[in-house]
Specification:
It is built from 14 helices and ten strands. The protein has 305 residues and is α/β, with parallel strands linked by helices. The relative contact order is 0.16. The C terminus is likely disordered.
Length: 305
């Protein structure tokens, strides 16, 4: 087996199967700028390798991925800081970090499988749900907390209408920041299977080995046919428009008044906080069997979009 360790991602190649392993477990695998670029680099490595037919995406630590970093620490997103300094807006940086890389995952030409345990929050839920198949352990849960937590209309690449394919369910999930257990996600058709935690890895590995049996060209063209059906319905264009809606909403006065003061200062490009400033705690709704609400999976690293 070949193995390469990037700063925040481990890449493994074992025959026809590659594994992209999020390795910021001590920080809930939150999507720092570095993690976004390491994740992207690992996928591109797998795409270029003609031996790789299937890619498994999973995370080290207590959960899969807890979304964007909301600690407010300077340097977490240098692209955003530069965009504010040069253009007075985060709009361009949002595309650079959270639109094009997500679209690349969606358009990745080879079959992908998300191996999800624990939390899949905000932008982390996109990495979990945009793969071709999603296999969950029975302790997995999903949430997009932005509407209730920050007053934003959703993520920069809104996938919910497409993964639910049900207007009523997608509306309740987004507007109430509903938490979904793995079983609920299975019932709604968002994931393929739910298995005991102890069987998660073996289930995914067996599935990957099965998918990898046909020729690479067969797999890529089969996936292309599936993806183009969704693209013809407007999925790709809709996901791009989400970033524009986010920029409009985040600049509105009522949204600015709702935002946590720390986050408001970051949006203005300020990196210092007054003494005694408390870090934000975002609301969430508890689902049966899910971890307690009102704290992120790792309390120091708040997860949202």
């Amino acid at each position: 087996m070949e193995r390469e360790e990037l700063e925040t991602v481990n890449y493994e190649k074992d025959g026809a199967v590659a594994r992209v392993i999020l390795n910021r477990g001590d920080k809930a695998n939150t999507q720092s700028s570095q993690l976004v670029w390491d994740f992207d680099a690992a996928l591109r490595k797998a795409e270029r390798d003609y031996d790789v037919k299937v890619v498994i995406i999973k995370g080290n630590g207590k959960g899969f991925c807890a979304g964007h970093v909301m600690s407010g620490e300077p340097g977490t997103y240098p692209e955003t800081e530069e965009a504010i300094e040069r253009l007075g807006s985060v709009w361009r940086a949002r595309y650079e970090l959270f639109v094009w890389p997500v679209l690349y995952l969606w358009e990745f030409p080879k079959p992908t499988i998300a191996q999800v345990h624990g939390y899949a929050l905000g932008g982390g839920s996109y990495w979990a749900l945009l793969t071709d198949l999603t296999i969950c352990s029975d302790d997995a849960w999903f949430q997009m907390p932005l509407v209730q937590g920050l007053g934003f209309p959703g993520g920069q690449t809104m996938v919910e209408p497409w993964v639910f394919m049900n207007y009523k369910r997608a509306a309740e999930y987004l507007l109430t920041s509903q938490k979904l257990t793995a079983r609920q996600a299975l019932e709604f058709g968002m994931v393929n299977r739910v298995v005991p935690r102890a069987e998660l890895e073996s289930t995914v590995e067996e599935l990957a080995a099965t998918i990898a049996k046909p020729p690479l060209t067969t797999l890529m063209t089969a996936k292309m046919g599936l993806r183009r059906a969704w693209e013809m319905m407007g999925m790709r264009l809709h996901m791009q428009q989400s970033a524009d809606m986010m920029t409009v909403a985040s600049s509105a006065g009522d949204v600015q008044g709702f935002l946590d003061p720390v986050y408001q200062r970051r949006m203005r490009g300020e990196t210092d906080d007054p003494g005694g400033t408390k870090r934000p705690v975002y609301p969430s709704q508890r689902a049966e069997g899910a971890p307690a609400a009102n704290t992120s999976p790792d309390s120091e690293h708040k997860a949202t979009d």
